[in-house]
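Question (not urgent): is this output format expected?
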Amino acid sequence: MKQYKNTRKRPNISPRQKYANPFERNYGSRYKKSSSTFAKILTMMAIMFFVIIAGMLFFANGQDFINEKFGEDSFIGSIFAKISKNNSAKKQGPEFNLPFGPRRENILLLGVDSNGADSDLWVGTRTDTIILMNIDPKTKTVNAISIPRDSKVYLPDGMGTQKINAAHAIGGIKMTVKTIEDTLGVRIDRYIMFHDEGVKEVVKALGGVDIYIEKNMHYDDYAGKLHINFKKGKHHLTEKDVVEYLRFRHDATGDIGRTKRQQWFLRGLLTNLKRPETVVKIPKIVSVTSKYVKTDMTPYEMTQYAALATHFDMDNIEIAMLPGAPNKTGYISYWILDPEKTQKVVDRLIYRQKTDALKDSYTASIMSLPDKKAEADKLAKALKNNGVRVLCSGSTNSVHSQFIAHSDYVTVDYYAKLKKEVPEVKSQQFVYQPDSYPCADTDFTVILAGN
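Got this back:
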């Protein structure tokens, strides 16, 4: 297996290699989709196991609180003491003392389902959520790629063509890591896995999670004892509701829509975890995560990531979903990855390749909810005054605001510059989406929604 360093571009691929599986060329109709909304959850999702420790840094009243709740010699108490020591030494020394040095790291995040048995939680389970994060300790930035679980790939060791989520069920974490490394030409440094049951237990411990459900959801599976009945709008989901919400996939967007809902849920979960009142629930949540989280990180590495995560700038987080299109073979539905655009996403978000040049002029599209029409008109005028040509304005049913970059010339640096020059361009989730235009073929699209 070839491995590529993060500082080096992946070698050129021959035409024959480029269009062979797993990156199959698909000539069917293009699939309209929007990239997932999960900027705020990415900084902490990677360290879910120790997010509670970071919460202590924000909300607990010093070491005495920790000693009282967990004991002076406890695992949690010792970790908090180490973090506190590091924080107090910031003025005298380096801000971080990361165990892996200043180089970038690729962290694989996996959410696994239930195998329907009372055996090992991590045996025979499929990965419903797959996110590859690239963390740069030097710049304190993070990029993330969401990998659709139905992506068609070659499994190693002669296991043939499968959906990517089957790799874990067949060969465990080793096969999952090798499949993604071989498919994308990257190196994975660490992994973190979360079990579905753990999500339920965390939600139960928190007393529920607030989520805005973007559409009416109705589905009944009497054989599977699954009954889903949600109306569009704000909801306080219990642990039972969360299972139904996350499992819903019976609409036009199928599994891509389900992937988005998983990530919107995680953003809501993080919001709950960061509330001051969550501190009193820490012991119960810690006991849950210790059972339902599996990682190859050491406790020391986790504390360092926790410290680093507190310094991430949300406006510098860039996310994308692997570009492709749906394809059905018999009764099996696949997500066929687009080879060229997938390579562009990997080069930009994992290898951090970007252009420092600026175009002479930029083009934009604006999509808005009906009640945001006045705001959209104001934004269009402000962009035009700044030299940006607005080629298209339209309506959207999205409930999540986004800034979507389609061109390689639209980087987070350009976005930061644009926000200074055009205050009407507010801070919102930054998405790289080279394969789909909600309104027109423009350099970027601004989506004005309610959340």
